[in-house]
From TrEMBL:
Belongs to the DNA/RNA non-specific endonuclease family. Pfam families: Endonuclease_NS. Residues 139-386 form the DNA/RNA non-specific endonuclease/pyrophosphatase/phosphodiesterase domain. Residues 1-17 form the signal peptide. InterPro entries: DNA/RNA_non-sp_Endonuclease_sf, Endo_G_ENPP1-like_dom, His-Me_finger_sf, Non-specific_endonuclease. It comes from Plutella xylostella (Diamondback moth). It comes from the Eukaryota. Keywords: Endonuclease, Hydrolase, Nuclease, Signal. This is DNA/RNA non-specific endonuclease/pyrophosphatase/phosphodiesterase domain-containing protein.
Length: 403
């Protein structure tokens, strides 16, 4: 009898202790999703399963460009702060008739992400852009891009990947890419139009002649808008949408984009989740792809010439991801070749470091097909070895291979 009472008391005490709120990335969020600010930064899950735990009385700010919608609102607001009541119920007595379910907070339209040119520079005097959201005159960045404003291409995007990123929100609609005038700071370069199917074909045919028909094959191999930071590298819909920015994009062959590059993105995300790594990722481009023209010349692929007749918007030769775990001081570099028209022999000559991934049990979690021309030839190496060829990354201390 006494035992029973003790058990009951313990149950009551523990449920008291658990009083507070729990939201989950997969359950408690609807579209169009607002931007959420928590403790002065963009909302982040608390654990690897995508849960957000909040104490009773803790608050969260909800921001939309137009109106926040919820069945309990008694006036229209574009920004509001709500306080955790319990479970998934939040209150704001001046704005909601009664406390409301968190998942019902939505925007009348998706909030607009934006880029901000900073006064910080990266490799060789290139400029760092931050991409994120402006809320009440504060800018909240999601990632940053080291961008070459002369040749108009991103050297890399830098962002974090943690175990919770595995639990990213799905079914988030793809917005169109925007450039916020970044490609028109000096000359008007219509990046979006240049990447359209018709225009990219015209540009490539100007360089290679009728051979363009062998290279650009609709539905099979074309130049896609290749994300550096992937849409699904962000856990919330507002973050996923913010990847659709041309400072985070470079022309990438569709076979590679949907093939080994996509496999790498998926595998890294799962591996970080399973290994409980907390990483910084640099995803970038290097070099310029070449194709053989009808005249028999190897020509560099650029999609445009600026008003000074300088080529801009290169089709990169390499896409890479350098994954770094600052606490462990370990890192690894994955590289893929963005040219489906090379033989394996030609591709191997472009491998610029000792390949640690090919046929190796070191990276058994990686399921890419490194010898596929269609999916993109791939290799991996130590960060130190990688830096000997690609000098772009800022310094950070690496003492071992992140496996
Ligand atoms: C750079 O920008 C930051 C934030 O916008 C500002 O606080 C700082 O004074 C600027 N630094 C220089 C050297 O302009
Ligand atoms: C994962 O790592 C974090 C620190 O980065 C640590 O607090 C947490 O306990 C770890 N989780 C597991 C399951 O090991
Ligand atoms: C596995 O990684 C180690 C470094 O940790 C390296 O010395 C070794 O060559 C790699 N194995 C293969 C088969 O690449």
């Amino acid at each position: 009898m006494l035992h029973k009472w003790v058990l009951m008391l313990m149950t009551v005490l523990s449920s008291r202790k658990e009083r507070g709120c729990r939201l989950n990335t997969k359950i408690d969020f609807r579209e169009p999703q607002p931007v959420f600010i928590h403790h002065g930064t963009l909302l982040e899950p608390t654990d690897a399963a995508g849960n957000i735990f909040m104490a009773q009385g803790d608050s969260i700010t909800i921001s939309c460009d137009h109106f926040i919608t919820h069945p309990h609102t008694i006036n229209l607001r574009t920004i509001a702060t709500v306080t955790c009541e319990a479970g998934d119920t939040f209150r704001n007595d001046a704005w909601l008739s009664t406390p409301g379910q968190f998942s019902l907070f939505r925007c009348s339209s998706p909030p607009n992400h934006m880029s901000q040119r900073t006064n910080r520079t990266c490799y060789d005097g290139n400029v760092i852009y931050e991409v994120g959201y402006k809320v009440q005159n504060n800018f909240y960045p999601l990632y940053e891009s080291c961008f070459n404003e002369r040749e108009l291409y991103p050297l890399y995007s830098k962002y974090s990947q943690k175990p919770y990123n595995y639990n990213f929100q799905t079914r988030v609609k793809r917005p169109i890419f925007k450039d916020d005038g970044v490609y028109s700071r000096e000359f008007d370069v219509p990046v979006d139009w240049l990447l359209s199917p018709k225009e990219q074909r015209r540009r490539v045919s100007e360089l290679v002649g009728p051979a363009v028909d062998r290279y650009i094959v609709p539905g099979l191999q074309e130049l896609s808008r290749g994300h550096l930071a992937a849409k699904t590298d962000f856990v919330f819909a507002f973050g996923e949408r913010a990847t659709f920015h041309y400072v985070n994009c470079a022309p990438q062959w569709t076979g590679f984009n949907a093939g080994n590059w996509n496999t790498l993105e998926v595998d890294i995300r799962r591996h970080i989740h399973e290994s409980n790594y907390s990483t910084i990722i640099y995803t970038g481009t290097f070099g310029v792809s070449q194709l053989l023209s009808d005249a028999g010349d190897l020509v560099y692929l650029y999609l445009y010439k600026d008003s000074n007749n300088n080529p801009v918007i290169p089709v990169p030769l390499y896409f890479y991801k350098v994954v770094y775990e600052p606490k462990l001081k370990k890192g690894i570099a994955f590289v893929g070749i963005n040219n489906p028209y090379l033989t394996i022999g030609e591709a191997r000559k472009l491998f610029f470091c000792q390949d640690l991934c090919h046929g190796s049990y070191n990276v058994s979690w990686l399921s890419w097909h490194p010898d596929s021309s269609r999916e993109g030839y791939t290799f991996c190496c130590t960060v130190e070895d990688f830096r000997k060829t690609v000098p772009y990354l800022p310094p950070f201390k690496v003492t071992g291979l992140l496996l």
